[in-house]
Write a structure and sequence with these properties.
Length: 281
């Protein structure tokens, strides 16, 4: 079977440049690195910088908010058209350990024909790293694991709650992707689309697995917690999710955004709170 790597991007050119350097060093190179540009023509130039990596850039139009779900679907569709049987989705901020593609491929081989999504280890890198710090040894020393992710022993697989599916770093066969129906493109902007895909996977008889391996290192970028800049998209996507699956996703964020006065609940729906100016001048 042949494995493709799929990355969606808008901005983050330096992160993508570094990622491409690490993709070039994979112990088991991917069939192709499909890079999906979400309304960012500059992605083409970044992708050309590593000509030794088989690459295909897909342009995904942007209308109202980043089409994260649609971009992932476009990337996997192109990978399949180019002959891939397996796909690895890797966030643009993530640097792949040299064995990431190999580890994911071996895990999917072990799971055989079962409908499975596998999620490897992700470690978060600190702010202020110099370019010379981005070496395999250094990132492994300074990276920190996410608090809610399970870490099986190296090479081991452990069943996971599909509600914790996160496309930051994951892999599946194209057959599993098709059985789940891909991502729901009604989700636009930030939040909910990953959890929805986890439910689609479970509804198709699939299973999420944690993998002890396939390590990735998440490059630092500023964030807000809760992500108040995405409050409108989170509220809209949460309503879509609840109407589809009967429960709220992103419960922590929604509670925190409500406490801060950015969203409110009317009946079962979440709504954005418009903060108008009090300046009458």
């Amino acid at each position: 079977m042949r494995t493709a790597l799929v990355t969606i991007a808008s901005g983050r050119h330096e992160h993508l440049r570094r990622q491409r350097e690490w993709v070039a060093a994979q112990s088991e190179p991917p069939l192709v690195h499909v890079v999906v540009s979400m309304g960012d023509p500059g992605i083409h130039e970044v992708a050309r910088a590593r000509s030794e990596v088989p690459t295909d850039v897909v342009d995904c139009l942007v209308a109202d908010g980043l089409p994260l779900a649609a971009a992932r679907n476009a990337g996997v569709s192109r990978a399949a058209a180019l002959g891939a049987d397996r796909v690895v989705l890797l966030d643009v901020d993530c640097l792949p350990h040299r064995d990431l593609v190999r580890d994911y491929a071996r895990a999917l081989e072990r799971l055989g024909d079962s409908r499975a999504v596998v999620s490897g280890r992700v470690q978060y890198l600190p702010e202020g790293m110099a370019e010379a710090d981005y070496t395999p040894g250094r990132v492994a020393r300074v990276g920190r694991d996410h608090a809610v992710r399970v870490l099986p022993a190296p090479g081991e697989l452990e069943r996971a709650d599909p509600r914790l599916l996160w496309s930051l770093s994951m892999a599946c066969t194209v057959a599993t992707w098709d059985a789940a129906g891909g991502f729901d493109e009604r989700y636009v902007g930030y939040g909910g689309e990953d959890t929805d895909f986890g439910q689609r996977l479970a509804a198709a008889g699939g299973q999420l697995w944690w993998l002890g391996g396939a390590a990735a290192y998440h490059q630092y970028h500023p964030t807000q917690s809760p992500p108040v800049q995405h409050a409108a998209a989170i509220a809209r996507n949460a309503n879509l999710f609840r109407r589809t699956w009967g429960f709220d996703p992103m419960e922590g964020w929604l509670r925190e955004l409500a406490a801060l006065g950015h969203v409110t609940r009317t009946g079962e729906d979440w709504q954005i709170v418009e903060h108008g100016s009090n300046n009458d001048a």
